[in-house]
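Please check this:
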Amino acid sequence: MFRHALCAALFAGALFAGCGVAGAENRMALVIGQSAYRSVTPLPNPANDAKAMAQLLRDSGFDVTTASDLTQKDMNREVGDFAANIAAKGPDTVSLVFYAGHGLQIDGENYLVPVDVDPRREADIPLQAVRLNDILNTLNAVPSRMRILMLDACRNNPFPAINQSAGRGLALVDTKSGAPGTFLSYSTSPGAEAEDGNGADSPYTTALLSVAREPGLPIEEAFKRVRVAVNKATEGRQTPWESSSLTEDFRFIAADGANAANAGPKPVAAKRSVAEWRGVLQGKPIEAANEIIVGDGSVEAYEAFVALFTQPPYGPQARAWLDLHRRMAAWNDAVLINAVASYSAFLAQYPDSDLTPTARRLIERLRHRPVLLAAVVAANNATGPIGGNPAQSIPIPPPANVALGPTCPCTPAPLPIKKVDTPRKLQDKKAEEKPVRKRDDSPQKRTSSRGPRLRDPGDDVVYDPPVREYYGPPVAAPPIGIGIGIGGGRGYGGGYGRGPIGYPGRRAY
């Protein structure tokens, strides 16, 4: 018996060491594949992508929950249950969400698309889909070691009713505006569309399945290789993108002989300037230089490349990537400011982009929304140039209907004071000269000791509040807030957003 138990223990230990999984941390993953769309052509690959990714994550030590072809209600439930499971595991948990399916941006917000969506207008998407920021905020609300989201969701917009007026791909999301410890990856650049691929898996998932299995490879280095592989496989048409606020390293598979998949704090990489990148790229073959900048993925690297190389196909591809990135960064700035002036500045810089209809629609919507002067001035002071371009920095004028005095324009004017409109001394003097009126306790003039009472017409009283039937401690009136939509608002209305765990809100109407 002891021999059998020893053999079983040795086998389990060998399997555990072979996987190279960290023993101290918990790993949990939610894998979603959306293929069977009901109102549009089904997608063949997401189901395959989800199945293959689930196996990779199990091999990497994750406790994997799989879900496929979810409706909006199902998707919200799965995300909520996943967050509850993370909370049960404790704060030393690495949480990961992989999503394959359709994704859309509407009015600068990103949405993951359930299989039961059937929009007739853009306003239907917020009602029928699942907002990406809600998923991010749900995961951030649960203490965890890190959060990894991989979205193979940038395919073309398949809904005829809205595919001509909505922006292409997904909008940019900056994870540094939320809680530290988040890694977000798109299958292609913000504002671009990804390919579903001709094989069993999409180009993005195919590259990820290959790269992530290399032992000891840090996650950010892994996704650099994913960018290069997808860019080559699609001949430059698709380049994955990511945003990271990780403070420590993560590895899917530990290095051979290592005891943990993670290896302490993430090293800080030095950021090169454009001039430094020119020195790195100068004299290299164009193919090698292109692979370097695609792997790095920084604006500075691309700017240096387009200054040195113009030959097709790499020169035009790099220029197109750089122009798209600048446009999406400018759009992100405009949406976060969410003012007529910010959208107008975007239109002045990009008058004929796929986001032009959205910007014009938001301008018209905002013209009917009251805006506080203080909020506009604060947003103007806190926000840099549009899209990082000093030439596009414009002052935000105060609304014409906002008073410039110290009083809040929405504060109601004080009610007129009747009769008692003199200084206290003069009032007391008049009270002494006034003949004493006899108190009338007749039922017609007074009620019970706790009820309101009627006054004689001659009494010098402005207001006599009724006595309330309440015997508990005094209750303070709740403060009155005014929504202004600068980085706040949960889509339409209530507040969420810029706290320590929140991702910035877009609009409040």
In short: The two ends are 71 Å apart (CA to CA).
